Amino acid sequence: MQQQKKLILQAPYQVCFQEKALPELGPRHLLLRSVLSAFKHGTEMSAYCGSSSFATKHFDPKLRLFVETTESNRGHFYPRTLGNMTVGIVEKVGEDVTAVSVGDHVFGWLPIANWHMVADNKVQVLAKLTPHEALCIDPASFALGGVLDGGVRYREKVLITGLGAIGLLAIQYCKLHGAVVYAASSFAMRRKLAVEYGADVVLDSTKMNDLGLEIKQLTGEGVDLAIECSGKDAQLHQAIRATRQCGRVVCVGFYSGGAKKLCLGEEFFHNRITLLASLPAFSWNNPVRTEPQLYAPDLHRLVIEDFESQRLNVAGMLQPTYAFEEAESALELISKHPQEVLKIIIKY
Description:
This protein is of the alpha/beta class. The chain folds into two domains: about 5-135 and about 320-345, Quinone Oxidoreductase, Chain A, domain 1; about 140-295, 3-Layer(aba) Sandwich (Rossmann fold), CATH 3.40.50.720. It contains ten helices and 18 strands. It has helices at about 40-50, 130-135, 135-150, 165-175, 190-195, 210-220, 235-240, 265-270, 295-310, 325-335, and strands spanning about 5-10, 15-20, 30-40, 55-60, 65-70, 80, 85-95, 105-110, 115-120, 125, 155-160, 180-185, 200-205, 225-230, 245-250, 275, 320-325, 345. Strands 3, 7, 8, 9, 10, 17 and 18 form a seven-stranded mixed β-sheet that branches. Strand 1 (about 5-10) and strand 2 (about 15-20) form a beta hairpin. The protein is globular.
C-alpha cells in the first residue's frame, strides 16, 4: 500500500507534512507519482496569512452569500491542502482505465503531495504541452477570463497591475487582442518579463507616488480598461484612478482583509467607472461575459490550444524551484520576500 505525504496548512502560518496510506487501486483509478507541482499564490497566501474571508465566514451556495461562521460549519477552512496543479507519471492503472497508460506523463488539479490516487477523468495526458505550460493552465485561464470579461478591443489602451503569473499572461492575451498595454510593478524581475511578453509601456511603481496620475499624464485621458491582478485594494484604487471616464476595471485578484485604501466616492463615482469581477474558476461555476458564455472547462481548452500553438509564452515565469522537502520554506519566501518569487515550482 502506497504512503502519501501531503503538504497541509493547519492554521495561519502553520504548515506541516501529513502522511497517510492511499486506498487500494479501483477499476477507474490510477496511481500517480508526482514530478512537479505549483502553488496558487494569491489565493493561498490569503489562507496562509489568515486574511481570507473564508477563514471567518461561510459561503452559502444557495444564497451565494457570505455569512458568519456558526458552530455547525466551524473548521470548514482549516486544515487545508496547498497547491493546485501537479504534473506526474502514471505508475499503475485500474482494470477499466483506457484513456491513460502506465508511464504516461499527465497533469491535473491536484495538491502538493508525492503520490496521488485519482479517478482517471481527473487527469489529462501532457501530449504537446510542456510540464511548465501545464502548471500555468490555471493562471492562464484566469488571465483569459479577465481579458474576455473586460471586452478588450483592438487598439484600446489597457493597464495591467499585479504582474504575477496571471498579470503576465494577461499582457500576452491583451496583445493577442491588439491592445496597447501598460504594465506596472514594483518588482524588477516582473517588469523585465512584462517587456519580454510584449507590454508597450512598463512602469516602475517604486518611482511614483501616484500610478493613476502617471497613467493619466501619459495617455491624456486614461486607459480604456484596467485589469487588476494584485488583489490589493490600494492597487485597485490606482487602477480606477488610471481609467478614463466611463472606462472599465476588471478585478482578477483575490481581495481579502477588508478595503483600507479604496475610496469609491472619488474617481469611481465621478468618472462613472464600470467595475467588474472576473472569477471563472471551476468550483464557482461562473461564466465569462461572452456570447456564447464560456465556463472554466472552455477556458482550459482554449488555453491548452494557445500553449500548443505557441501563442503563449511562460519562459522565465516559473521560478524559483524548491524541493518537495523544502515546501514549507517556499511558502515563507512567498509571504516575506515576494520580490524574489514569481510562481514557485515544487520538484519531487
